[in-house]
Specification:
The protein is mainly α. The chain contains three helices and no strands. Keywords: Coiled coil.
Length: about 170
């Protein structure tokens, strides 16, 4: 019986070309292999593309970090500049306040009554008056050179009358 089955099979396969089963199997294996190769190539391309995107992203992040650091440095510079300007203004305000206080003291000194002064006190008063007048001349000369204009008054010691001489301070 066994033989009969083999002969039946051979009879059935007589019309078929020999080696087709092997060819089909070989083609199937080759197809699977090429399919696997294609999948591997596709995976490699995907990995390369992903790597490129990752590198580009890293470059963009580094660039943005640089920009942020530059902005921070610029902000610190601007802050330091503003702080220096503020300190400069504070110094000028303190200087102006000191000058104002000095002017008040000078004005009080210039307005002192000289009637009750003895000779030594009068001499001291005149020396102080000369110092004040000199300081005002220097200040006016310095301020006019800084501003680039001429002094506003015509000179003298601010128009204070000297009751001992009857002179109006040279004005």
């Amino acid at each position: 019986m066994l033989r009969m089955d083999d002969s039946d099979e051979e009879e059935r396969n007589e019309c078929k070309p020999k080696g087709t089963k092997k060819d089909k199997l070989r083609k199937k294996v080759e197809g699977e292999a090429s399919n696997i190769r294609e999948k591997m190539e596709h995976m490699m391309k995907s990995r390369d593309a992903l790597t490129m995107k990752t590198l580009e992203t890293k470059l963009l992040i580094n660039e943005k970090k640089k920009d942020v650091k530059l902005a921070q440095v610029e902000a610190r510079r601007e802050e330091a500049k503003c702080k220096a300007d503020l300190e400069e203004r504070m110094i000028k305000v303190k200087e102006a306040k000191a000058w104002k206080e000095l002017m008040v003291e000078e004005k009080e000194h210039m307005m002192m009554s000289k009637k009750d002064m003895d000779e030594d006190q009068l001499m001291w008063w005149k020396e102080c008056k000369d110092d004040i007048a000199e300081r005002k001349r220097i200040f006016r000369g310095a301020s006019s050179t800084f501003r680039g204009d001429t002094p506003m008054s015509g000179g003298g010691d601010g128009g204070v009358e000297d009751s001992t001489t009857g002179d109006n301070g040279g004005a």
